[in-house]
């Protein structure tokens, strides 16, 4: 079996016993390798994926190392090609970055950084974060944190927030309990938002989640609330978010992802008030990727269920 692995990550698949070849993720698949049966994907261009989908007729499996398979699904691979995601490979790094963004937003490190740039000792900030009427805005202790998209990343993040005194509620397709935390259904989200201090989105990009954070939901949040997105940019109505920040209906937001990436230099998000932006760096370090690929290669050879198999709609 021929396996193509991307040049963007080091994968030791020597134990697979298969033919493993490296390809460039920003170039068409070489003619001599279009007969490969497995394609491993990481940081591929849309053009490369579309080329692979149209020319690799013997493919059995596309293994993306990204947590979200949206770019692979959009490429148009045939319905009989199995697609598996890199879910769980990014849990630790994304949870860490989410926590960093939450703390930066809660403690308003963006404000302090601007003061530092002007050599200002910000006494007004100190007064606000210690005054009885506003000190609660500057801490996670007793804060109500809602995590929208309560999967394996949330399982790593929620205990960290709890350790700092936050009360965590998850939002998923169905209500219940996950990883020891209460979870409400997506239908209940609007009522939960009314009492939310920090909303963290880890939603994947799907047809159902496009612009999921709408103007209506933003208006359901208190004006003192914080929004953090480490999921996918497609899930946020960016015009509505900009308006909420500009009009003071949202205290601060932090985005690691945007609809268009890289974010264009002329995007008004760069100048939105009270907005922290990082360049999609929460994950980008797939931990344990070789083990996942090897496990799925063995499963493919033996006819066993694949790990992280992505459900696909019939064409």
Would you mind describing this structure in some detail?
- The chain is α/β, with parallel strands linked by helices.
- The protein has two domains: 2-89 and 286-302, NAD(P)-binding Rossmann-like Domain (Rossmann fold, 3-Layer(aba) Sandwich); 91-277, NAD(P)-binding Rossmann-like Domain (Rossmann fold), CATH 3.40.50.720.
- The chain is built from ten helices and 13 strands.
- The chain has helices at 46-55, 70-73, 91-106, 109-117, 123-130, 152-163, 189-193, 215-220, 238-246, 289-302, and strands at residues 2-6, 19-23, 38-41, 61-64, 82-84, 144-148, 167-172, 176-178, 181-185, 198-201, 226-229, 252-255, 275-277.
- Helix 8 links the parallel strand 10 and strand 11 (226-229).
- The longest helix has 16 residues, at 91-106.
- The two termini are 27 Å apart.
């Amino acid at each position: 079996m021929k396996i193509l692995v991307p040049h963007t990550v080091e994968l030791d698949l020597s134990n697979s016993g298969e033919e493993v070849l490296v390809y460039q993720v920003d170039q068409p698949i070489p003619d001599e390798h279009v007969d490969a049966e497995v394609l491993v994907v990481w940081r591929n261009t849309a053009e490369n994926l579309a080329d692979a989908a149209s020319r690799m007729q013997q493919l059995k499996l596309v293994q993306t190392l990204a947590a979200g398979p949206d770019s692979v699904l959009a490429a148009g691979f045939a319905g009989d090609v199995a697609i598996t995601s890199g879910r769980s490979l990014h849990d630790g790094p994304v949870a860490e970055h989410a926590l960093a963004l939450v703390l930066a937003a809660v403690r308003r490190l963006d404000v302090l950084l601007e003061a530092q740039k002007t050599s200002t000792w910000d006494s007004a900030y100190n007064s606000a974060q210690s005054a009885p009427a506003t000190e609660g805005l500057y801490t996670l202790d007793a804060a109500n944190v809602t995590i929208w998209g309560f999967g394996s990343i949330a399982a790593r993040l929620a205990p960290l927030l709890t350790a700092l005194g936050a009360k965590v509620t998850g939002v998923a397709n169905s209500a219940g309990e996950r990883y020891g935390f209460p979870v409400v259904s997506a239908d209940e989200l609007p009522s939960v938002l009314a009492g939310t201090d920090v909303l963290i989105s880890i939603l994947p990009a799907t047809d159902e989640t496009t612009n999921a954070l709408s103007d209506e939901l933003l208006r359901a949040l208190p004006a003192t609330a914080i929004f953090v997105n480490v999921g996918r940019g497609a899930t946020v109505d960016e015009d509505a978010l900009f308006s909420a920040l500009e009009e003071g209906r949202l205290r601060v937001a932090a985005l690691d992802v945007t609809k268009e990436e890289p974010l264009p230099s002329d995007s008004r998000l760069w100048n939105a008030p009270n907005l922290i932006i990082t360049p999609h760096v929460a994950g980008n370090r797939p931990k344990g990727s070789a083990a996942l690929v090897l496990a799925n290669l063995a499963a493919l050879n033996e006819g066993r269920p694949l790990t992280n198999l992505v459900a696909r709609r019939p064409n």
